[in-house]
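Components:
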Amino acid sequence: MARELWKGNEALAEAAIRAGVDAFFGYPITPQTELLEYMARRMPELGRTFLQAESEIGAINMVYGAACAGARAMTSSSSPGISLMQEGLSYIAGSEVPCVLVDIMRGGPGLGNIQPGQADYFQLTRSAGHGDFHPLVLAPATVQEAVDLMTISFDLAFQYRTIVIIAGDGALGQMMEPVTLPPMRPPRQERPAWALTGVDGRQPNIITSLYLDADELEQVNLRLQAKLARIAAAEQRWECYLTDDADFLVVAFGTVARIARTAVRTARAAGIRAGLFRPISLWPFPAPALDQLAARVKGVVVAEMNAGQMVEDVRLIVRGRAPVRFLGRTGGVIPLPDEIASELTHMARIDAHANGDRG
Amino acid sequence: METSIIISGFGGQGALFAGQVLAYAAMESGKEVTWIPSYGPEMRGGTAHCTVVIGDEPIGAPLVRNPDCVIAMNLPSVDKYTPLVKVGGLLLYDSTLVKQSLLRDDIVSAAVPAHDIALRCGSHQLVNIVMLGALLARCPLVELPAVEQALRAHLPERHADLLRPNIVALHAGAAYTASQPAV
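Structure:
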């Protein structure tokens, strides 16, 4: 397959199209807008549905409706727009219908700015809406990986009848990289048996998130939690880079992880045995894999474009077995490799000092 | 081995496009490459820049603090990037627009009268590609035919009449720099 140079936002859109998205509903917001623009051009050409909603609230509820009808429906936005979608996401989770959402995160809180950020980590993994649920959250670090994850996202969403979120940031959305795109899948003809397709010779399907009876709603919650436990067990994804002999570990996701990769190489050149652990699924967090590494490293650096969110998960997993340092940049500032490398150097120096090596 | 290049200028001078052309040429030459633009508030009426990183291995950080090479097409870009170029790195600037002498002796700088060369090639719109040619003469990241091919494939259709002048400008920039001593 030929390599082509693609911008992250547009590559995500084309990958969704090739994965068979039936309907896209969205509302423009920088730094995600190229995704919506691309959909506006391509979806009508293919006879599929593109609709620019009146707001993000409208868009997510259109996704909800299309998903109830069994369509492969998606939306995309950036941080402030995702906040507006939270009510709809909760209804979608409560109704157990599948959908895909892309969050190209920017600086916050509030309107913040349009530069890259990762401060939606808590929101996406913990509180995508009210009630007890977690979306399946996937965080690509390269444009190729964005394409690869988008390609499987609808399958995952339908397999589990769950929300799949692709969590990128402004840098990933705006940058261009060589990409090999997957082949175009033929459009899916069949609708799932649970979908609202018009009652014609069958019992009505009911899709709702309203259960007034407490015992009944508890049963719904227990079923939902059992499903989330299955997802948590089966869908952990991560990458290890130079971790086999690593004394010091960087844990980072998305854009920061690729920057950390450069920092790890820099640290290695300076004689520090550094490695990178990169969660690809942010929920479920790849806890067992990190747990194994945490048992044998001398220190962990967590780098994020936020004030310290994933670091809480890392600390829960490391459980004090190694010191955990946090490097966070906020406001749309992107940490550069030398900042992460100097955290590694600092950690190695403290460790050497603690072991009596004053050299 | 990775090489980082920042191309910077006024919005409309084609800094982002020159970076894309370089990125396409690098990809078609079998290299790994990233291209990342400035898209923040500076895009709205100020200077625009992009960072291109070219290497043999998958690129880690797509952004750098100290670039190996800088193309500065206006004075604000010269002011911003002169202190940031890596020691031993390369700064090319449009000497038609920027008259000041540079303050660092630990980098290689090349004054390219890009605006004048562009006008001789047919249009002031060619400054970006003159500068790209000038860069490649000093720092042979990709072969000029690969850049020509990238221009053929990616110059927007509305500028189709500028394809030939762009290719002329590429070679004129390269020829000018090749004829000048490195400072």
